[in-house]
Specification:
This protein has 5 helices and 9 strands. It is an alpha/beta fold. The radius of gyration is 16 Å and the shape is globular. The relative contact order is 0.23.
């Protein structure tokens, strides 16, 4: 059993990361819902070309598409906000981890504000629970069983995962992550 767990940080700026993970949702018609922000134009192009719909667990990697000093972006589809469950978020986190490994990302920023500000989220689930479920999915995706592997694996693992959240959410997110791990 081999765990390659990255360093978890909580911050308010994306700088220093080579990839930004941006959670996105679908609208009621199961089409990509475009959030306001620096990625709105790029998401509109993806929606127009029908190449990414934001379905649960879907990932769209865009090389050289990052904003605010980040080179790349990974759009992580979570499906419709009204149907979101913690388990669905964990599964999406596992899919994201596989993509991070495939793209050899080193320092990853996760834009928590997109996850926490989606319209239609279940209000009985706290914002910390959503973020913690995504972190758990990423960490569970890091598990590998290497005992009977013939060749040594030379996989590049992300060294740092930084949660980018508004200042008011930092304390509760830190507490949730500490309690989970």
């Amino acid at each position: 059993m081999d765990w390659q767990i990255p360093k978890l940080e909580i911050g308010s700026v994306v700088k220093g990361s080579d990839l930004e993970v941006v959670p996105v949702f679908q609208d009621a018609g199961k089409k990509l819902a475009i959030p306001a922000g620096p990625y709105a134009a790029m998401l509109a192009n993806l929606k127009k070309s029908h190449s990414f719909s934001g379905g649960a667990g879907s990932c769209q990697f865009v090389r050289f598409g990052g904003k605010n000093g980040v080179e790349n972006v990974l759009f992580l589809g979570l499906g419709q906000a009204s149907e979101l469950t913690e388990e669905r978020v964990r599964n999406a986190g596992g899919h994201a981890w596989a993509k991070l490994l495939h793209e050899k990302s080193k320092k990853v920023a996760i834009s928590g504000e997109y996850l926490l500000s989606a319209k239609g989220l279940k209000t009985e689930v706290s914002s910390t629970a959503w973020a913690t479920a995504l972190a758990e999915g990423l960490i569970y995706g890091a598990y590998q069983y290497q005992r009977f592997r013939q060749k040594e694996s030379h996989v590049t693992f992300p060294s740092t995962l930084t949660w980018i959240v508004p200042g008011t959410a930092k304390k509760s997110l830190r507490q949730g992550l500490v309690e989970s791990f």
